[in-house]
């Protein structure tokens, strides 16, 4: 296929714009612009999407695996590549590969594998733990949840070489020394698996924690005398929160409420895991979600496009806003202006899907993905 492509006959969703009767131009790895049909340059190959929707490639900041590939159980380049390929087929063109609380050796091996792999879709690692509150550990093993210390943080991050991009921590158990050290490593900090009260959570947001991990799940409750971590997130002027919109981890009515209170600070994640029968995390699929062998709810079976569809069909969120929750808002949080939009100069990562939320085409850096696109 020509490296210069003009996508025609589609409805383009770009940030806050819904654009019809125009063409999206791809020039190699980047977006060249959005122009009227009669202004497509002669050297561009026309690619007819037959009335489908065109949006930026989806961004998932918390996913552990997909299908039968749970990265923490494999810790191989082959597993990472398999996850990347499967996510591309789902329309996800950028993600943070996530590891739940584990031994430091597993975290270090994951970092080493990631560094050796030169991944094309995974932007970095998200460590969900080990510095969590044991009382809100959820599916995380209690014996591996440990207190933070400067020694442990340095041991974990010293050779990370900018691989670890995000970490979920319980802010009420992190002192200022550790918090400032994590800031020095320039890792995005997110509050989660936490029993923080309103004051503790609010103070941590003011002191550099920028996000909340899977809002409502594994955290202090919203109580009328102590609104806890959810209330602190709702009332803060800046902090963002991720949410799992599968109707299981969070009721759709709570999604509606969250959206009203957080607006553009609420973004989508899948928190998806994979079927696994070995290692610490043995996930078993129960229809539309995963549980541990003891029945504890673990990760989701979502795709990010399905989360978008659920927002539209069950939470009263418009399609353009739901797409922003899976593209623009996470890209803002991680401060990457080259993804999450279809602006001129941005990476040509995009998804084409129809009104039934069926994926028709996916492009990664201007190249059509085999198995979907022509």
Automatic annotation (TrEMBL):
Keywords: Carbohydrate metabolism, Hydrolase, Metal-binding. Residues 53-368 form the Amidohydrolase-related domain. InterPro entries: Amidohydro-rel, GlcNAc_6-P_deAcase, Metal-dep_hydrolase_composite, Metal_Hydrolase. It holds the Pfam family Amidohydro_1. Belongs to the metallo-dependent hydrolases superfamily. NagA family. PANTHER family: N-ACETYLGLUCOSAMINE-6-PHOSPHATE DEACETYLASE. This is N-acetylglucosamine-6-phosphate deacetylase. It comes from Sphingobacterium pedocola.
């Amino acid at each position: 296929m020509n490296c210069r492509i003009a996508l025609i006959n589609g409805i383009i969703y770009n940030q806050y714009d819904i654009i019809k009767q125009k063409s999206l131009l791809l020039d190699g790895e980047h977006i060249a612009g959005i122009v009227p049909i009669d202004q497509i340059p002669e050297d561009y190959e026309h690619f007819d999407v037959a009335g489908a929707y065109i949006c930026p490639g989806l961004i998932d900041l918390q996913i552990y695996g997909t299908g039968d590939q749970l990265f923490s159980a494999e810790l191989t380049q082959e597993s990472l590549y398999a996850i990347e390929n499967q996510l591309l087929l789902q329309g996800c063109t950028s993600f943070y590969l996530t590891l739940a609380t584990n031994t430091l050796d597993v975290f270090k091996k994951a970092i080493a594998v990631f560094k050796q792999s030169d991944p094309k879709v995974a932007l970095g690692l998200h460590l969900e733990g080990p510095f969590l509150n044991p009382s809100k550990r959820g599916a995380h093993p209690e014996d591996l949840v440990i207190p933070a210390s400067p020694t442990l943080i340095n041991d974990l991050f010293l050779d990370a070489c900018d691989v670890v991009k995000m970490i979920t921590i319980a802010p009420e158990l992190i002192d200022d020394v550790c918090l400032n050290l994590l800031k020095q490593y320039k890792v995005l900090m997110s509050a989660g698996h936490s029993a923080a009260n309103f004051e503790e959570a609010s103070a941590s947001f003011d002191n550099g924690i920028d996000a909340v991990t899977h809002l409502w799940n594994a955290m202090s409750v919203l109580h009328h005398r102590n609104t806890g971590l959810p209330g602190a997130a709702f009332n803060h002027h800046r902090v963002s929160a991720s949410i799992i919109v599968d109707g299981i981890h969070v009721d759709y009515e709570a999604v509606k409420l969250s959206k009203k209170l957080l607006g553009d600070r609420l973004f989508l994640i899948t928190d998806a895991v994979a079927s696994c029968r070995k290692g610490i995390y043995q996930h078993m699929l129960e229809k539309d979600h995963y549980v541990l062998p003891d029945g504890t709810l673990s990760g989701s079976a979502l795709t990010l496009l399905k989360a978008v569809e659920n927002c539209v069909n069950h939470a009263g969120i418009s399609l353009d806003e739901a797409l922003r929750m899976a593209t623009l808002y996470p890209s803002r949080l991680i401060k990457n202006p080259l993804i999450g939009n279809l602006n001129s100069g941005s990476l040509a990562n995009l998804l084409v899907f129809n009104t039934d939320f069926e994926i028709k085409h996916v492009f990664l850096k201007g190249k059509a993905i085999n198995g979907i696109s022509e």
